[in-house]
Amino acid sequence: MYINKIIFLSFLFVSNLSYSDNNNQQLLIKDPKKIEIFSIKDIYDNETTISNSENKILLFNFWATWCAPCIKEIPELIELKERFKNSLEVYFVSVDFNVKKTVPKFLKKNKLENLPIFNDEKLEISNKFGVKVMPTTVIINKNFEEIAQVKGYVDWLSPQYINFIKKLL
Prior knowledge:
Helices cover 34% and strands 28% of the residues. The protein is an alpha+beta fold. The protein has one domain: Glutaredoxin (3-Layer(aba) Sandwich).
């Protein structure tokens, strides 16, 4: 598994798949995909089981500390969650190497100490959703179905994305 991770991250660096340009789009899934129950650990090894959407829209944001567009997106996603407090949950999923050392330093430096971060150091969740670009946000509806992926940086506070979230509620 360690070799797979090295290959994946090498591919990301070589192909420069962390990006933010105006061509990034949300990719709607024509036939929503039912999500199977899965578990994910935070950076302190506390495990959370994701078994349903609890009547919320779920956003799984895959990011890394070395990805500038990812870092730009974090405050916008935090504000988006605040706007839709009881209707939206955002999961920040780090794909960094050595998450337990790298991410706490990053959070402290950027004054985000209270932000819950999940660990996908082994790329298990990334592979589950077919994530190959940083950042990528997977959107799951209230029926616990994957309905869209947003690849690359987008302005989550733009009218386009605010309206998209409202339509899902």
